[in-house]
Amino acid sequence: MPKGKGSSMSEGEAAAGAYERWDLVEGMESEKREQRKARKGAVPSLLTLSPERAITLLYVLLALTFVLFMALTIVTLQRVSAMWEALEQARMRSENSHTTARHNLSEAQDTLDEQLSVELKVMRGRLQNVSQEVERVWWKVAECQRECGKELADRLRVLEERDVLEPVLQQLAEARQEQSRVAALLDKALQETHNLSEIFCTRCPSGWQQFDRTCYFFSSTTKPWLAAKEFCTNFSAHLAIVDSQQENKFLANHVMENQKFWLGLTDRYREGDWQWTDGRSLSLPFWNNGEPNNVGSHGEDCATIYSNGRWNDVPCFQAEPWICERSC
Ligand SMILES: [Ca+2]
Ligand SMILES: [Ca+2]
Ligand SMILES: [Ca+2]
């Protein structure tokens, strides 16, 4: 488009630029028109489908949608089921742990109750003992009060009556002195009697031996134990009873070698229970080694003494020499 006459070169160049811009604008407009034509051509191509094909296509789309919906539903249900199962397991674990805890708590409570019951019983017993001890102490205190009061009263009465009792006490002391003097005289008389007895004891019967104010008879014949016992009784004596080691030695000294003499010792009433003929139990034994052994079918129930002073049990029916003993 021309602007003036004075500048022919610049006007030509301006015109050429204007033409170029015009072509460019025209090209762009043409391109836009072609694009609009292409879009208008495409829409009618979809709309030009037949109804059957459109319905088929619609069904296909619906089927795909349904399948997709079902798949999503199944996945969702599986997830919900898994979550529900996990929740159920968690609930069962919780319930189990709760039951176990309750059971343990119940056992602990029972044990505690039992321990408390035992301790309570022990404490009750101790309390009862303490109560009884306190009661005993109170009784003792009350008794002591009574006794002490009585003793005090007695002492006061003695003090009050001392003047009255003084002559009586004096007489009592004199009586005691007299009693002592009489006792001394009696002792002296007994000693003299004893000495007389010693003198008379030197006169044992003929054939009897004397030892320590006692007479002994050593037989020269033999008899069974019971017959020998009866013989001694007829002489107001008894078979020898050993009361001391000295007496046993005296008897042994009068026993001949290789002989044994009856003693007044037997277990014929109860086996193993050795008793003297006066009823006393044996307390000072001098048994030989291995004796008493009660051998034989009839047993051995009567004791004899050897010349060495040792004893042996032999059958009572056996005939042996014997020893009688009696006081002077
Ligand atoms: Ca004797
Ligand atoms: Ca015996
Ligand atoms: Ca024997």
Fold and architecture overview:
- The protein is of the alpha+beta class and 328 residues long.
- The protein has a domain at 208-327: Mannose-Binding Protein A, Chain A.
- It is built from 4 helices and 8 strands; from the N terminus they run H-H-E-E-H-E-H-E-E-E-E-E.
- It has helices at 8-47, 51-201, 225-234, 245-253, and strands spanning 208-210, 214-218, 238-239, 261-266, 275-276, 302-305, 311-314, 323-327.
- The strands form 2 sheets. Strands 1-2-8-3 form a 4-stranded antiparallel sheet, with helices on one face. It has a 4-stranded antiparallel sheet with strand order 5-4-6-7, covered by helices on one side.
- The relative contact order is 0.06.
- The model is unreliable at 1-10 (pLDDT under 50).
- The structure holds calcium ion (3 copies).
Give the key terms.
4 helices; 64% helix; 328 residues; alpha+beta; Mannose-Binding Protein A, Chain A; four-stranded antiparallel β-sheet; 8 strands; binds calcium ion
Give a quick precis of the structure:
It contains 4 helices and 8 strands, in the order H-H-E-E-H-E-H-E-E-E-E-E.
SSE arrangement:
Blueprint: H1 8-47, H2 51-201, E1 208-210, E2 214-218, H3 225-234, E3 238-239, H4 245-253, E4 261-266, E5 275-276, E6 302-305, E7 311-314, E8 323-327
Antiparallel strand pairs: 1-2, 2-8, 3-8, 4-5, 4-6, 6-7
The site of one calcium ion has 7 residues, from loops.
Q: What sequence of helices (H) and strands (E) makes up the elements?
A: HHEEHEHEEEEE
Report strand %: 5-15%
Coarse morphology: elongated
CATH class of the domain at 208-327: Alpha Beta
